[in-house]
TrEMBL record:
GO molecular function: transmembrane transporter activity
Top-level lineage group: Bacteria
Name the record gives this protein: Putative sugar transport protein
GO (cellular component) term, any one: plasma membrane
Domain Major facilitator superfamily (MFS) profile per the UniProt entry, residue ranges: 18-404
Residue intervals passing through the bilayer: 17-39, 51-76, 83-103, 109-130, 142-162, 168-189, 226-248, 260-277, 286-304, 310-330, 351-373, 379-400
Length: 407
């Protein structure tokens, strides 16, 4: 049996360096997406758009990511994963750079589609690399570190991005992200090893690219993780995109106070995500997912039913919300990553990522259709959106039982 890498990892230090660069790339990728949510009030005012139009702005990235993710499933397993990741990240950085020069709603919408087309495949490639080079008994921890990029993006990226938007306009966060993306590419080229385990002749099945995709789609063992991913996304992305606009319009937060939400939420989840990953490795990924998801229902209900509330209490509720709603992703992705054999992991993760992105985009868009603003500019029906989230969370626990671990 061949080693997992053409140049095997000899030390934990090399493994940590790889995890570091994957987390850094994921950080920029995640920040590009999450910065859209706190900028919601700014976009709605700048372009004079309603909740449905903003929902489309958020979902356009995700739906584009899903569509191109399916295309990526046709070829990602035929290239060195290092090459795939760097090319995808270049295209993503270019799309983000275009966002900085958008002078209209339509231009920004198109730029988000381009960024999403490339960005949607980054997550699948990163998780495939983790699945290929990290032993299964450390995979939950590694996934927790990479998923912790959401926390770092919230603690550092979102407040800094919102400060740039406050001082220089909403274009500047995207300009900074685009430049940072181009600058980190050489570091990724240096630190990432060639990853060709899935291409080794003694394990690779000679087949066409279409057959590779069909193999992923026709295996009955893959259906549960795919359906699971739909409800995993609806459990969070019905509520998350409109959190900032809701807090400003209904709860009384000012736009300048929004960074506190992401700072404290991200700061706490930076530690809890890693801890949840370790718990998943120790006690089992399903049992930890089950516990965290059931606990997530409480803050979801508290968030969507909030009225005028003091800032300290808002921070407590939203921080708990982020801890559990984002924390369930760690055991969830560790389960899904391990639900496929290595030779088709890239195609599987591309399809899975496509489903994830389309589902999150659909959740955002559906929520935007349900929500509307009354004469006082307050959002109506957020609690109904929250009910969809709760039902999705509960059903995802049932579906998680059906996922079989392959390796």
């Amino acid at each position: 049996m061949s080693q997992p890498l053409t140049h095997p990892l000899h030390t934990i230090q090399k493994e940590r360096a790889i995890i570091f660069i994957l987390a850094a790339l994921q950080f920029l990728h995640v920040l590009d997406f999450v910065i859209m949510m706190p900028l919601g009030p700014v976009f709605m005012e700048s372009f004079n758009i309603d909740a449905a139009a903003f929902g489309l702005l958020v979902s356009s990235y995700s739906i584009s990511a899903g569509v191109f993710g399916l295309i990526g499933a046709l070829f990602l397993d035929t290239f060195d994963r290092k090459l795939s990741l760097l090319v995808l990240f270049f295209g993503f950085s270019f799309g983000t750079f275009l966002c900085a020069f958008a002078n209209s709603y339509v231009f920004l919408l198109i730029a988000r589609v381009i960024a999403g087309g490339f960005g949607g495949m980054i997550g699948a490639t990163v998780l495939s690399i983790i699945g290929d080079i990290i032993p299964v008994f450390r995979r939950g921890t590694a996934t927790g570190v990479v998923m912790g990029s959401f926390s770092v993006a919230s603690v550092v990226g979102v407040p800094f991005g919102l400060e740039l938007a406050e001082r220089f306009g909403w274009h500047f966060p995207f300009l900074s992200l685009g430049i940072a993306g181009f600058l980190i590419l050489p570091l990724g080229y240096k630190l990432l090893p060639s990853i060709r385990y899935h291409l080794d002749s003694d394990i690779k099945v000679k087949q066409s690219q279409v057959k590779s995709l069909l193999l992923v789609l026709k295996k009955k063992e893959h259906f549960p993780p795919f359906i699971f991913m739909v409800f995993l996304m609806f459990g969070g992305f019905t509520v998350i995109p409109f959190l900032s606009p809701f807090l400003v319009s209904n709860v009384g937060l000012s736009t300048k106070q929004i960074p506190y939400i992401y700072f404290f939420g991200g700061l706490v989840t930076f530690f809890t995500s890693r801890y949840i990953g370790k718990l998943a490795d120790r006690f089992g990924k399903f049992i930890i997912y089950q516990i965290v998801t059931v606990l997530a229902i409480i803050p979801v209900i508290l968030v969507v039913t909030m009225t005028k509330t003091a800032l300290p209490m808002i921070l407590v509720i939203t921080t708990i919300f982020m801890v559990f709603v984002s924390g369930r992703m760690v055991p969830a992705f560790a389960m899904v990553t391990s639900a496929v054999e290595p030779r088709i992991r890239g195609s599987f993760m591309s399809v899975n990522s496509a489903i994830q992105q389309i589902a999150s985009g659909a959740a955002s868009y559906v929520a935007g259709l349900i929500l509307y603003q009354n004469a006082d500019k307050q959002f109506v029906n957020y609690e109904l959106v929250g009910m969809i989230s709760v039902l999705s969370l509960l059903f995802s626990v049932y579906l998680a039982k059906k996922i079989k671990i392959s390796g």
